[in-house]
Amino acid sequence: MQITILGAGAIGCLWACRLAKQDHHIHFWTRTDKPSFSIVLNDCVQTKDHAQTPLAPELFDFTSNNIQSIAKSELIIITVKAFQVEQALNDIFDHIAPHTPIMIMHNGMGTQQHVKTRLVDHPILYATTSQAAFKPNKEHINHTGLGPTWLGAFNQSAQGFASLAELFHQALAPCGWHHDINEPLWQKLAINCAINPLSAIHRCQNGELATPQFHAVLTQVCHEVAAVMQAEGYAVTAKKLKQTVDTVIKATAANYSSMYQDIFQQRKTEIDYITGYLITRAKVHGIAVPMNTQLWQDVKLLEQNHDDK
Ligand code: PAF
Predict the structure, then answer these.
(1) Same domain, 197 and 115
(2) Of the residues 125, 144, 179, which one is the last residue of a structural domain?
(3) Which atom of ligand 1 is nearest to the CA of 257?
(4) How far apart are CA 42 and CA 55, in angstroms?
(5) Ligand 1 within 6 A of 248 CB?
């Protein structure tokens, strides 16, 4: 397939390399005007005993920023941060062929309303992944954690694209098609509400959140998220959410969360699309979410400190 990926961050590059390995033609649309670039992937795979084994580094060459390649693309994958989706769509919208499917994959929720009004004719898919990757510099990608990816239709015209889940599964397993993509998006939102703000505020690796000092706050975050998810129609319990969060903390113990990295690098975070989205939905349902509100305020304060410098 001819595929254009918007956003050469860690997750975009990881998928690009894995899809290129399956002989798909990957073209990038980035914020630079470079016509090509190379990436070294430090990949890993899971062995039968569920251990992660590193692979030898592999070099990938990609073309980029070619308008004709966008027009020829059979699939557009948007992996920019949630707050960049609107601008990314504006940049390429006039060049995407009619009926080309557009897949959106980012942490958090809340871009759906804009996407719906902007892309009236195109099949739209959302995706969420628990694969973890880290970009230590512009030329390297480290695949640091394995986990499932879910794909699903966001509008009626995307219903016929379930075969894309198999294509993604071949590239980077496991990947499945979900009949209600909002469910795995909410599950991932719950994980991000718990791990991201705390790791950014306390400047720690995810694994440190397994220590007893974080037990009460994580439990309350999960209670609040579960109440909002139930009001949205999902049959979750706070206990089950906490178990899932604990599993992810363990599986990504050595990772620095994306929000930690954003704060560390003095970049804008995705807090408004993670905890901020939860708070917005909680208001709609009349549910109090004091712990999440506190975490949202703390992260906003950290972001503000960047601006003051
Ligand atoms: O945003 C992140 O860093 C990741 O989604 C997760 C799962 C919290 C692991 O670090």
Answers:
(1) no
(2) 179
(3) 3
(4) 7
(5) yes
Instruction: Specify the number of domains making up the chain.
Output: 2
Burial per residue of 7-24, b for 16 or more beta-carbon CB atoms within 10 angstroms, e otherwise: bbbbbbbbbbbbbbeeeb
How far is ligand 1, taken at its centre, from the CA of residue 192, in Å?
A: 6
d(CA 137, CA 159): 38
- Is the same domain home to 50 and 168? yes
Residue 283 belongs to domain with CATH number: 1.10.1040.10
One-letter amino acid for residue 161 of the chain: F
Coil, strand, or helix at residue 269?
A: coil
Domain hosting residue 263, numbered range: 183-302
51 has a pLDDT exceeding 90: no
- Atom 9 (ligand 1): residue with closest C-alpha? 257
Mutate to test the pocket of ligand 1, among 14, 105, 107 (most ligand atoms within 8 A of CB): 107
In-domain check, residue 307: no
| Alpha helix ranges (H) inside 3-46 | 10-21
Calculate how far, in angstroms, residue 71's C-alpha sits from the geometric centre of ligand 1: 33
Distance CA 62, CA 35 (A): 9
Query: Is 141 a member of any domain?
Result: yes
Q: Which residues are identified as catalytic? A: 188
Q: Which two tokens stand for residue 84?
A: 């960049």
pLDDT in tens, 176-190: 999 999 999 999 999
Mean pLDDT of 146-156: 95
> What is residue 251's predicted lDDT score, i.e. its pLDDT?
87
Decide the pairing of beta strands 25-29 and 2-6.
parallel
Residue 207 within any structural domain of the chain: yes
Cβ-based burial of 103 (10 A; exposed 0-12, middle 13-18, buried ≥19): buried
The predicted pLDDT at position 309 comes to 58
Beta bridge partners of 78: 6, 104
Q: Is residue 285 part of a domain?
A: yes
